[in-house]
Specification:
alpha+beta; Peptide Deformylase; three-stranded antiparallel sheet; 8 strands; 39% strand
Length: 154
């Protein structure tokens, strides 16, 4: 399992670089390690900066589907937005409401090197936008309202 970096580590605030060689042994080993780390930490998404790698790589698992997004970029956002509660493995013990586009289209390369376009809405769209923010050095707490502690005593 990889170590998840937490705020205020400056790595989380750096812009990530595109993945140059998807077939490099480092990237091929990093993808399953990120998935394992995300699942063991009880997360639905993990961006490479969260494990100290400033590259454009995101893993997501939602409703039984696994998404590996390399060099992702949002190519369309809906006009309509929704407020929803978010938390983050890199900001433990905190949750807040974030206003995000309800639906998006994202272009990315999958782990096989295939170009993909995914239309996502509601919760999946929120997860993707949250993870892609990490690639730009943005944390959900930068956008959130009504921040609250999720820590329980005892």
């Amino acid at each position: 399992m990889l170590r998840i970096i937490t705020n205020p580590n400056l790595i989380l605030r750096k812009k990530s670089q595109p993945v140059a060689d998807l077939n490099s042994p480092e990237i091929q080993q990093l993808i399953p390690a990120m998935l394992e780390t995300m699942l063991k930490a009880d997360g639905v998404g993990l961006a490479a900066p969260q494990i100290g790698q400033n590259i454009k790589l995101v893993t997501i698992q939602f409703e039984g589907e696994t998404y590996i997004m390399i060099n992702p970029r949002i190519i369309r956002k809906s006009f309509f937005k929704d407020w929803g509660e978010e938390g983050c493995l890199s900001v433990p013990g905190v949750a807040g409401k974030v206003n995000r586009p309800r639906a998006i289209k994202v272009n990315f390369i999958n782990e096989k090197g295939e170009n993909q376009i995914l239309a996502a809405s509601k919760m999946l769209a929120r997860i993707i936008q949250h993870e892609l923010d990490h690639l730009d050095g943005v944390l959900f707490i930068d956008k959130a309202k009504q921040l609250k502690s999720t820590l329980t005593n005892g």
